[in-house]
Design goal:
Length: about 650
Amino acid sequence: LVPNLFMTRRLDGFPNVSVRGMGAFGNTQGVGFYLDDVQLFADATSRFGDMERIEVLKGPQGILYGGSNIGGAVKFVSVRPDPEAVSGRVKLRYGENNYVDGEAVLNLPLGGEWAARAFLFAFSDDSYLENPTTPLLSGAVVENDPDVGRTEESGVRLTVAGPVTERLWLYASARYNDLDGPNNVWVQELDGDLEYSNIVDTSFNPRHDRETSAFSVELTYSFDNLDLVSISSYNATDSRRETDLDIINENILDLIRPQELDVFTQEIRLSSTNDGPLQWQVGAYLLDFDRDLTSELLVRGGFCFIDPGTCDPLPGLDSSELLVALPFEFSRRTREQRAVFGSFTYRLSDQLELSAGLRIDDWESTRTNLDTDISGSLGDTETLIRASLTWFPSDSTTIYGTFSQGFEPGDFNLTNFAGANELFGFGAEDASQFELGYKARLLDGRMIATAAAFYIDYEDRQFELQAADPSGGFVEGIINAGDSEQFGFEADVQFLINDAWQLSTGIGYVNAEWVDGTVSPVSGADLSGVTPPNTADWSATTSLDYTKDVGVDSSVFGRLQVRYKSDSATNSQFADAPGDAFPAWDNPAFTVVDVSFGVEWRNWTFDLYIENVLDEEYYIDVQEFPNFAGSAIASAQEAVVIGTLEQPRRAVLSAKYVF
């Protein structure tokens, strides 16, 4: 519902997210996700639940929050343990597609000012995607579960908080998440004339199994006029992703990606707490990131059936038989980041406030191809600044101007091209943003209005591309595609019409273009003035809420919500060449309407939620992809279109009990 924020979940369990056209979908994440000030690198799309609030910070976060995210930050702030009373809730949901969901929260005082809190959940969803298990060319019939998109996920988070001494306060958390879901079960289209089928006719049901364990400790020591905060975190994630690269009902080319990820972060902040006109903060940040991949590209017997002559099927050959396993990503990747930062805010007068900040960030990325024993290392030291001037014309109005910078580190792709004797690297991307904003409470506090205009200079943008290697393999990598410039605005209003009705509406506009001289890294075509992929010009949201007391300890409520996103460019612009048979195309605009209504009675809440009432068909992630099925596709074209089809109309009933 936030203007100019697009956030969805990819079919491999990772987020697609951009803010104001910054950030890119796929393996390049320009927007950071945080849980209680700890950045999430492996499972940002997990359910965290039991949230006090969610903050969206737009634009480069150069001097705030851990790793200095170029496009912004989405920060989940959980409810802290309460030492006052035992409390909690239980919620159950059931919906179409055999959707079953349950979660529970328990708050438990431990004596004195100590308390503990637990959140746990589990859900399963058969999904709306279907595998028809079409017989193979060899005549064999594969018995796949028709619910190709089935997802099962569960998790638990435990927190404890309390005073260690009179001045030292502890907040610690431990969480575990287990995901057994689909992986890259894309809907296949043959061109940009999208039909939005829910059929995923693959030879097997690709899965993503992921287990995450994470721990964090936050210590706050209060001096007379200072707070010293230390935040330590550790995350360990083991996952295995399977992909049917040919995306058809033949055993041709599969990708298996086991991964082990370990991340340690340490942040220290020293902040002023006095009431004077000068407020300041200094700190340091450390990131130690290690990822091991042992993925393989599997060529199976079905290849012989679709391309006779190159590999004639032998008598009795099983199309699922493994012909060869090729190392795809046998690698070890590390990243170290060390940063120091500081900021201050000075109240010049009752109506003027000046803020400024500086961050010096030293990073180094190293990657080793364990199959070829070729390594690469690169790094740099970045200096980022932020400055703002804020005017308070009244107690209820704020007008500000801000300049901010951010970056994302570079790294290496693996040596996938034949004959290469060094890893192909990509450098850091950088952004500078100018923003002018307005915030106000109007009509005696019944209306909250915000507006902002911005200009962004975005350099060396990172994009993920996939291509077929001339040697017959598969190449996936990240490149610095070029520089872009974008400007736009956003505004939203929350209006309390009366005691029963509330209206919220927002609109966002982004005009983004590749700068003059930008060329496609694939086709060499001139991209000057073209809108970069995954950037929509317009987005808008409106919601109308109703709540009314109807009797003793009871009330009724309802909500109507409308979301709109205009069409957006795709990665087809990189492969398009004048006169080819597969021209550049856009992801079409879509409008989604959701409604819910229910009743509260004492400690109980019952409601019905209908998502996508108009049954809009739309993709949240769509792109061109190499055609690894070859002549098995009638047109035998070089590329196909893969799309992540979003949820069609679905009704969900829920019941909640609070104690």
